[in-house]
Amino acid sequence: MAAPQDVHVRICNQEIVKFDLEVKALIQDIRNCSGPLSALTELNTKVKEKIQQLRHRVQELEQLAKEQDKESEKHLLLQEVENHKKQMLRKTTKESLAQTSSAITESLMGISRMMSQQVQQSEEAMQTLVNSSRTILDANEEFKSMSGTIQLGRKLITKYNRRELTDKLLIFLALALFLATVLYIVKKRLFPFL
């Protein structure tokens, strides 16, 4: 019959193997994760929890190893504990890589969102420029039309001024002719002998 301490060591070893396999599976899930950042963060959190449980079981196994009566079993268990610690160190490195990867992914997604906003703003600015250009072109066409009207008005005013001068000259000549005729008639009637 196995001693209770041996049973506890065996259970601890089984749990270590179980947690180790779960951590490996989660790391594989992280590698295969192409989903949103939240899924990657959730997997990362699960890995941390499993590594913490694994670390706790390894410490428990180390304590059990130190409590062993037989030096050979104690040495064998301590060597096994060291192997588990080395494996955990590699898993911790993988965990930190996963954290770094998720941080980089989050940063890239932030940059992508910023670039998308910049593109949106550029499109809006471009649309505003197009609308402004259209308004300016319409105003330019209206000014050309008004310029033509103003030129025509200037020509008409100049022609009217010339006509007015001509009319004044004709009125003056007609008045002079009229006065000359009146004077001639008055002279012939009042001074017929002259």
From TrEMBL:
GO terms for molecular function: SNAP receptor activity. The keyword Endoplasmic reticulum applies. It comes from the Eukaryota. Residues 100-190 form the Sec20 C-terminal domain. InterPro entries: Sec20, Sec20_C. It is found in: Endoplasmic reticulum membrane. GO terms for cellular component: endoplasmic reticulum membrane; SNARE complex. The keyword Membrane applies. GO terms for biological process: retrograde vesicle-mediated transport, Golgi to endoplasmic reticulum. The chain crosses the membrane at residues 169-186. It is a single-pass type IV membrane protein. Keywords: Coiled coil, Endoplasmic reticulum, ER-Golgi transport, Membrane, Transmembrane, Transmembrane helix, Transport. Residues 37-87 form a coiled coil. Its main location: endoplasmic reticulum. Belongs to the SEC20 family. This is BCL2 interacting protein 1. The gene is BNIP1.
